[in-house]
Every structure is written in C-alpha cells, then in structure tokens.
Write a structure and sequence with these properties.
4 strands; 118 residues; Alpha-Beta Plaits; alpha+beta; elongated
Length: 118
C-alpha cells in the first residue's frame, strides 16, 4: 500500500550507533553473552530502541553492539542518543565492561540512496 507524500511533517529520521566495548573479566563466551544481553536488554527497556550484538563471533573479550531509533525530528533523536550515551557510560562505571568507542549518527530516511520506496 502506498501513501501520498504528506510533505515536511512526515519526515522520518533515523539514529544509529555502534558501541565498541572490551570485557576484561569475561573468561568465556557465556560471560560475554551475559554482559552483552544485560546491556542490550537494559537499553531496550529504558529507551524503546532496537539493539543487536554485532560481533565479533568467537571473541569473548570484545563486543560491538548496535543501537537504533527512529523519530520525526533530528533534534529528538540527538537528545535520545545523548541519553543512551549517558546510560552506557553509567553502566560502564559498574565495571563489567570498558567503552572503547561510541559512534552515533542521525540521518534522514530520504537521504538513503537505495531505498525501496523511491
């Protein structure tokens, strides 16, 4: 089903971030999964976002997590991403993992070159 373009008010904004962490006390993949699940489930429940473990497979001392939001304005998503970042750094203080890098981006859906709805 196609909808007519309703103009500026229907803009779809996307925010995505990758979180690179080290898990120094993980002795196994089970330890890694426990910490990754705790972080992703906590972020999902607190921020209503999508979260995924992006790998690397077979590595128990490192992880890359992905997070994504969608919304109707760039400023809303920048604020939500800043709140996610604060939450993740707060979680880091608990000592289960160390943040190596947090890479957030906010972009407009219309700017994606190979969209299916064009």
């Amino acid at each position: 089903m196609k909808f007519a373009d309703t103009g500026e008010d229907s803009r779809l904004w996307l925010a995505a971030a990758r979180l690179f962490i080290e898990i120094p006390y993980a002795e196994s993949l089970k330890d890694r999964r426990h910490i990754v699940r705790s972080v992703t489930d906590g972020a999902r429940s607190r921020f209503a976002l999508s979260a995924a473990d992006l790998g690397p497979d077979g590595e128990h001392k490192k992880a890359v997590l992905g997070f994504a939001f969608c919304g109707s304005s760039q400023s809303e998503l920048r604020e939500r991403m800043a709140n996610l970042e604060k939450y993740l750094f707060f979680r880091e203080e608990e000592g289960e993992f160390e943040i190596v890098r947090f890479s957030p981006e906010v972009f407009n859906y219309d700017d994606i070159p190979d969209r299916q709805d064009k």
